[in-house]
Write a structure and sequence with these properties.
6-stranded antiparallel sheet, 64 strands, 11% helix
Length: 984
């Protein structure tokens, strides 16, 4: 009996221990939110069968395959491929499989259309890289309708759509040939592979579908050669531009005889001027030639001659031809005038007639139309209607039907580049409670439901209503600051050059702006964003101005490409100003100085080493001149294995001087020999990080002073052989080296080597410690190491009593040029997960314990207490060490399922984790982004400075009432007892 009672007690204790790490069902979504996206759509295939829910299957630039509901745009299912597994083609086979071709034509997969589960996977190997082509014929007959034709890596494969078996393969990889199309004429057992060799010779291969036998190989050379890709208006004719771009060439290839017919574009279009471009749209019986913003539609006749059908100005996008009832074909045109889209569906058979013409208003912040995909449906009156799936410049996705936008998706948020935060405005006095709270009836209803839940009288519907009220709480979604600092704006920059402001309360989009400076123009052909910086953060008591952010980008991928600077209001999203193009941008250095308007000074270094000061005002220049001797920075050149330190020297030379340009000089450099080491990772502390105390007192009353210089750089290198993938090098040939470098003097403070280890290395720095993750080839496991660095130059200040009484001047300035005497403590642990990214929690005062936030290979975020990575851990800690909180040493870091910040959710394509402190010291805000977004609040040391959201106020009130009654009753009893004593 005693043993049973003991076991029951242990079970109860164990259960109560783990529930402290879990969430109740009605707490989900109160402090966190999760949003799913797919990215910019590249290809789309509609599946609108007569029964079942209508859907469209898309592939995106984020390597996602997804089925979307055509009614609401919701995700039915989604599959994410690897970062290096780019999707080339997508189609639907046999009406039930989604077929994808990826990795340059190397991997063919079939996915179940209803639920997205993978049915089979085939690897197609070849000897020569080539473009990828996919063809799923539908007219082979009953015994051959299961064949999928794939061209990739120089080989043509016939693959069974039932099980993915390769039926046959044919090598077409010849020197200089570029196969561009696979053509299957109707009711034929022959497939044609069309291509161009050496830009001047047209090649046509006739191949048997049954066994892959080469039936005929024809070729013919065009004097002067071709330019651009082939267009295929019919199954027996191709059209291409000549090398000058002024002649259209019609090519007939069926029957083994190749014929060329040329026509001057100037003869088709009067007043032709400019460069011509053949659009890749697949139009039935015609081709579209783009000249400036106009489209020239040219019909290809049976004999191969070309005839102009029409010229349509200001066309943004053209869809592929769509076949519907009784051989009719149509295609869609999108013309754009500001925020108005004009959608026209024309007949391929009769150009003068059109099936649809409608106009719809869209937000101008979506930019221009990039792509359009057409689909038809049957209306209630048995006539045919058309819907258009439109991909916009900002990567958003719209469904246009019956003259209205049915739904839209903001899929630019799948490609976030950088994130910063902004405080919300202060709530003004005199605001009516009715404007920010629910009405009286809803308020009373909510409190009644909460009371029923407290007394455990609530039904499941009542519990759901309480959760809904909590999620829609005005306190959570108000557009003003809260006293705990939980409500903020997340300002995010996307790859499309669009800026979003997300509310941390519920993740909704407060505003969005497609920045003018990041739109393609004649002066900037390939704009791309780089970084976000806080530009102006006015104090709400001093200024009545809105905060603003600085968006930095370039006009290309080259180091000398022109730069882009855009200044955006953080509250309204208005682009206050932009500078483009400016000097090249190699590095942006936020300086710790602000002017009278609280604009932060920034130093931008160009590719030639010149430094440019922003903002360009006399006041900023005066502040910078006073601090000229204290401006240092460093640069890491991974390609040349070089680490350099720089300092601002003087104004630029007269020929480039503008008053805000400065020359710099190299202070020091560290060159790593390329034959022995390669730089693979660096890490530094956050400039905004707050350190609560510089001293750390051990259990033996010994004082250690943290080395908390913001100039400390962590740098990792590996031997050249260890650069390759994990497992491709032997442990004897692999070394990992770790350096701690002072970036002011270039002095190496600490160096450590790991034999038999290799990257990738992910590191995070905070206070006086660095944690980094790598792979141990000898143990065949991942490891995490921690290094803590302490300043021994203050070793004499070890009197704890003086430290407590404040007799030591810990605020005395410390110079990097005074040689530091440092000591390090380090320890390594095994870790079971591969890691994508690592971050650390940050709080307002730095008092709260730290947690490492680890983005795992499974796209989840794991919170690991820093105490597990304490280098002072021992196998048998003393009693004093146990009281200090030191955990007994184990060789492996523990991973508890309850420690996953993302719970059961996944942040697909996880790229980074951002943490920002709240005003409440116990709490930090965490934002993880990839293709998905996730936000939550964490309290690493529990909410010791506030009551939790699920605090039982009713029980507290009942307790107080019971105590008051008890006090009153005992007072009466005491009075009666005193009276009885006096009567005695």
């Amino acid at each position: 009996m005693a043993i049973r009672a003991y076991l029951l007690f242990c079970i109860i204790l164990f259960s109560s221990y783990y529930t402290t790490f879990a969430l109740y069902e009605d707490q989900v979504g109160l402090m966190d939110w999760h949003q799913q996206y797919i990215g910019k759509v590249k290809k789309a295939v509609f599946q609108t069968q007569k029964v079942g829910r209508k859907r469209v299957v898309v592939s995106t630039e984020e390597n996602a395959i997804s089925a979307l509901d055509l009614r609401h745009g919701e995700i039915f299912w989604r599959q994410m491929l690897g970062v290096n597994d780019a999707i080339d083609e997508i189609d639907i086979a046999m009406g039930k499989y989604v077929v994808t071709l990826s990795s340059g034509g190397s991997v063919l997969r079939a996915w179940n259309l209803p639920d997205g589960q993978m049915v089979w996977e085939s690897f197609l190997f070849g000897s020569k890289p080539s473009r990828s082509l996919l063809l799923t014929p539908t007219n082979f007959g009953a015994d051959k309708d299961n064949v999928i034709l794939v061209y990739g890596n120089g080989y043509l494969h016939a693959v069974s759509s039932i099980d993915g078996d390769i039926l046959w393969k044919k090598g077409l990889a010849q020197s200089g040939i570029d196969i561009q199309h696979l053509v299957h004429p109707e009711e034929s057992d022959t497939i044609y592979a069309l291509g161009i060799r050496d830009t001047s010779q047209f090649e046509a291969y006739a191949i048997s579908v049954r066994n892959g036998e080469l039936l005929k190989h024809s070729s013919m050379e065009l004097p002067g050669g071709f330019s651009g890709d082939l267009s295929l208006p019919t199954s027996d004719k191709a059209v291409v531009l000549d090398s000058s771009g002024s002649i259209l060439v019609s090519i007939s290839f069926v029957g083994g005889e190749i014929k060329f017919q040329k026509v001057q574009i100037s003869g088709l279009l009067q007043g032709y001027s400019g460069a011509a471009e053949l659009l890749p749209s697949k139009l039935a019986g015609m081709v579209a030639v783009k000249i400036d913003r106009s489209l020239l539609f040219v019909k290809v006749k049976d004999e191969g001659t070309l005839e102009v059908v029409d010229t349509v100005p200001h066309v943004e996008a053209v869809s592929d031809s769509l076949s519907f009832a009784e051989g009719q074909t149509a295609f869609g045109l999108i013309r754009q005038d500001g925020g108005k889209l004009q959608h026209t569906v024309k007949s391929s058979n009769d150009w003068k007639s059109h099936f649809l013409k409608e106009s719809v208003e869209v937000d101008q912040q979506r930019g221009l139309v990039h792509k359009v995909f057409m689909n038809n449906y049957v209306r209630t009156d048995r006539t045919y209607g058309f819907r258009a799936l439109i991909v916009m410049e900002d990567h958003s996705l719209l469904l246009l039907q019956q003259g209205a936008v049915v739904w839209n998706r903001e899929d630019a948020l799948a490609s976030i580049i950088d994130v910063t935060t902004s405080e919300l405005p202060v709530q003004k006095d005199g605001v009516s409670v009715a404007k920010v709270e629910l009405n009286l009836f809803e308020w009373l209803k909510g409190h009644l439901l909460k009371l029923k839940a407290t007394l455990m009288l609530a039904t499941p519907d009542d519990v759901a209503a309480v959760q809904r009220i909590r999620l829609q709480s005005a306190e959570k979604s108000k557009m003003t600051r809260d006293h705990n600092g939980f409500r903020k704006l997340l300002i995010v920059l996307t790859r499309a050059g669009k800026l979003f402001a997300l509310h941390t309360g519920d993740g909704r989009i407060v505003w969005s702006r497609l920045l003018n400076a990041f739109r393609k123009s004649e002066t900037c052909e390939n704009p791309r964003g780089l970084k976000l910086h806080q530009w102006q953060v006015p104090h709400h008591h001093a200024l009545n101005e809105n905060p603003s952010v600085l968006v930095v980008g370039t006009c290309g991928h080259n180091s000398d490409a022109s730069g882009i600077l855009s200044f955006v209001d953080a509250y309204k999203g208005e682009e206050l100003n932009y500078l483009a193009p400016v000097h090249s941008i190699k590095q942006v250095i936020p300086l710790p100085f602000t002017d009278s308007t609280e604009q932060r000074l920034h130093l931008i270094v160009d590719a030639e080493g010149y430094s440019h000061l922003y903002p360009r005002t006399p006041e900023a220049l005066d502040i910078f001149q006073k601090e000229l001797g204290n401006i240092y920075w460093y640069s890491v050149d991974i390609n040349n294995n070089l680490l350099k330190g720089h300092v601002v020297k003087k104004n630029c030379k007269d020929e480039i001087a503008d008053g805000y340009c400065f020359e710099s000089s190299d202070l020091w450099s560290v060159i790593f020999p390329s034959d022995s080491e390669k730089i693979i990772a660096t890490s530094t502390r956050k400039l905004s990080e707050v350190v609560h105390t510089q001293a750390k007192v051990n259990t033996d009353q010994d004082v250690l002073y943290k080395y908390i210089s913001k100039n400390l750089l962590f740098l990792a290198t590996v031997t050249p052989k260890a650069i390759s993938d994990i497992g491709s090098v032997t442990p004897e040939d692999s070394w990992l080296f770790v350096y701690l470098v002072d970036t002011i003097t270039g002095r190496v403070l600490h160096r450590m080597s790991h034999h038999g280890c290799q990257g990738p290395v992910h590191a995070v720095s905070s206070e006086n410690w660095i944690v980094y993750h790598y792979f141990n080839l000898r143990a065949h496991r991942y490891e995490m190491s921690v290094v803590e660095i302490y300043d021994q130059s203050r070793a004499d200040n070890k009197d704890v009593l003086k430290l407590v009484l404040g007799k030591h001047n810990l605020s005395a300035p410390v110079s990097s040029y005074s040689r530091p005497e440092v000591v390090t403590k380090s320890q390594s642990y095994f870790f079971t997960h591969s890691v994508k990214t690592v971050a650390v929690t940050s709080t307002a005062k730095g008092i709260t314990s730290k947690q490492l936030l680890i983005g795992t290979i499974g796209d989840q975020v794991l919170a690991l207490d820093k105490r597990f990575l304490d280098p002072r851990r021992t196998v048998n800690p003393t009693q004093a060490e146990k009281e200090e909180g030191i955990i007994p040493l184990t060789d492996t870091l523990p991973i508890m399922p309850q420690a996953y910040v993302t719970h059961a959710l996944k942040v697909e394509g996880l790229r980074s984790i951002i943490t920002t402190p709240a005003k409440l010291e116990s709490t930090t805000l965490v934002f993880a982004y990839g293709v998905d977004l996730f936000f939550t609040r964490l309290a690493p040391s529990k909410t010791y400075d506030s009551l939790t959201d699920d605090f039982n106020y009713a029980l507290l009130l009942l307790t107080i009432i019971a105590l008051v009654i008890a006090i009153f009753v005992t007072w009466i009893w005491s009075e009666r007892k005193d009276l009885q004593e006096k009567w005695r």
